Amino acid sequence: MLLLVLAYLGGVLTIVSPCILPVLPFVFARADRPFLRNGLPLLVGMAVTFAAVATLAAVGGGWIAQANQAGRWIAIALVGVFGLTLLFPRLAEHLTRPLVELGNRLSGVASNAEQDGRGSIGPSLLLGVATGLLWAPCAGPILGLVLTGAALRGASVGTTLLLVAYAAGAATSLAAALLIGGKLFAAMKRSLGAGEWVRRGLGVAMLAGVGAIALGLDTGVLTQVSTIATGGLEQSLVDRFAPRGNAMHGNAPADANGPAMMAANGNANGGDVAGGSGPSMMAAGDAMRAAANHGDAGNGNAMMAAGDAMRAAANHGGAGNGNAMMAAGDAMRAAVNGASPSADNGNAMMSAATQSARQNAAMLRVSAPALPVEGDAPSLAGATEWLNSPPLTNASLRGKVVLVDFWTYSCINCLRTLPYVKAWARKYRNDGLVVIGVHAPEFAFERDIGNVKKATHDLGVTYPVAIDNGYSIWRAFNNEYWPAHYFIDAQGRVRYHHFGEGDYVQSERAIQQLLVEAGHPDAAQVPLGIDGPAASGAQAAADNADMRSPETYVGYARAENFSSPGGQLHDREHDYAAPAQPGLDDWGLAGAWSVAEQQATLAKPGGRIVYRFHARDLHLVLGPGKNGAPVRFRVTIDGTAPGASHGADVNADGVGTVTGQRLYQLIRQSGPIVDHTFSIEFLDPGVQAFAFTFG
To answer: Any stretches that span the bilayer, and where are they (predicted)?
Structure first.
């Protein structure tokens, strides 16, 4: 219920947002007519159309985006005609004559019915539908919370209701403005000759609105102004009223700014986070990010986004009495039941006693209280495909300790946890641990199974990977993060979870404890930590003490701090100029680029991206040109080649090549970290740039 109220309030706030300006003339064009038969149908048509299109766009594929784009152009033409009819009465008479004649034949309604206030609501409803197609409200925290939640959780009545509530809020504020404007319009009409000029003025305003939308100003310049105008107020509403949830027991809403916004280091189970206050996970929600921002991240404490419900489950779960003695008892029974048929009862009892002693000693070695039961493990059904293994089920995994790792292959936080996950899979395989990577894509190219197969091979991932392109497993776990680790015991119950990087020792001790409970006491003797070569390249641990730059998206859906003059233009080629003196975390484009929701695509050779950053490492998610054509590039820091500060994917001269859709490490510094201006120039066209990350 709180989310519905929040969505409604977010819609009401659109009246003070500059993004609403282009559609105001469409609304006020009928301010001089009866509200119930003109203004109200227009607003209903606008609200219903927006909610329907937004629902489909959030949960549908690329076809709905293309269909909506075509519909927008049809609507632009339709509203343009409405504007022209206000300017030229004879044109209006000519266009409406066939409709009037048809209406007379069907219903015998007189041609002057519109003047008598009994006209059809059809024209107003049609104008409302067109306005709904054209209306692109600024994606602030509240609308973003609704849209990303829809994308991650799938289509539902709740999703549509939230979008309807948002649209209803906007319609309410516009209705108030329309009623006030109608009275003002009537007063002006009473003045001699004023009515005709006001009507023509509205026609000009409608055509200006059409021009603004056709040029992309409603989703470009005005969006940036609106972020300043209403974003803070919306965020305060989210912070105060949005329900906090967690991945297993709550409903923390998600944000349009990301499934993939960076959240502060956190462990929802309450452990301290290694590495201090740096980013450690990609959170799917703005409410999550808000919780992180308002928490005491400097102390490296638990991520509060996991919510009170998770903490309650941890503190009051049904496993409070599960201790080492219970585990030893289970092991005793297992030893007795599993004794060799040739052994006599005495040997069986001695074997059980020995096993019990070993298990008690093992439980003392892991030296941790019994892990609480957080609930039964959700289903693993719904994967598009399985790699490295036939499909696995909860039933087939009973008796095994299971680690479920939600990841995506271009996520920097996932890559940095990967050395530990691979080490655990190797070290405890013979003790009964099964690691399952659930690959849930963030970007469109991560849905390509061929790309995922190549990434798992290149990254050395040999354990089972479930391709979760439909987010079926993601939704079953009610997950919100990349990476997210869920630890499941031999009885099929979730006993521990961890979101993001860090706390590797605590996570490994949880594995050992669950294995000991399952009758594998030797697991407690395995040395903690990575058992192979130290992680390198993008998989190396971040330098959180010096990492001040945030993850930054290039596509307009989640772009922030874009500083090229004129702002971003959406879905069209444009010649950009780099910012002359970017501030810290400002970035920009130079050259001929086309910016889409998720990425920017270079149309001509010589295009650049610049970024003023403060971090040891700089990464950029890139993809090659059409048909996988390689794209050469050259990197500089403060105008010179990186030298010893080059990343794993470039040489000392800053030269590299984009050969696949993945994350590229471009800068890796040593020594004191200061602010630098990074620049990457692409020598070939077609490259796609998605997101910056830092380490």
So the answer is: 6-28, 40-64, 70-88, 125-151, 163-185
Return d(Cα 547, Cα 206) in angstroms, integer: 48
| Averaged pLDDT score across all residues of the chain | 71
CATH superfamily to which 375-539 belongs = Glutaredoxin (3.40.30.10)
Whether residue 573 has pLDDT greater than 80: yes
CATH topology of domain 544-694: Jelly Rolls (2.60.120)
Runs of H (alpha helix) within 253-411: 286-294, 307-316, 324-337, 345-366
What DSSP character marks residue 306? G
Contact (Cβ atoms closer than 8 angstroms) between residue 79 and residue 134 = yes
- Per the structure block, which two tokens stand in for 60? 């549908």
Contact yes or no for 147/153 (Cβ under 8 A): no
Comparing C-alpha atoms, which of 375, 383, 373, 394 is closest to residue 475?
383
579: Cβ–Cβ under 8 A, 6 or more apart, which residues? 563, 564, 565, 586, 587, 588, 610
3-state SS, residue 602: strand
- 318-328 pLDDT, tens digit each: 333 333 333 33
Tell whether pTM > 0.70: no
CA distance 648 to 663: 11
Rounded-to-integer distance, Cα 410 and Cα 446, Å: 8
452 close to 410: Cβ distance less than 8 angstroms: no
d(CA 260, CA 281): 8
What band does 406 get if pLDDT is binned at 50, 70 and 90?
A: very high
Q: Which of 183-197, 361-375, 540-554, 643-657 has the highest mean pLDDT?
A: 643-657
Distance of CA 404 to the CA centre of its chain: 20
pLDDT value at 621 more than 60: yes
CA distance 6 to 243: 10
Interhelix angle 62-87/194-214, rounded to 10 degrees, is 160
Q: What is the pLDDT of residues 508-549, one digit of tens each?
A: 999 999 999 999 999 888 988 876 656 777 777 777 788 899
* Start-end of H helices in 191-323: 194-214, 221-241, 286-294, 307-316
Kindly state the DSSP code that residue 297 receives in the 8-state scheme: G
CA distance 685 to 630: 9
- The side-by-side arrangement of strands in the sheet containing 261-264 is 261-264, 279-283, 481-482
Cβ atoms 401, 511 nearer than 8 A: yes
d(CA 271, CA 275): 12
Judge whether 474 and 248 are in contact, CB under 8 Å: no
Query: What value does the mean pLDDT take over residues 330-351?
Result: 37
Strand order through the sheet with 484-488 = 375-376, 493-499, 484-488, 401-407, 433-439, 465-467, 385-387
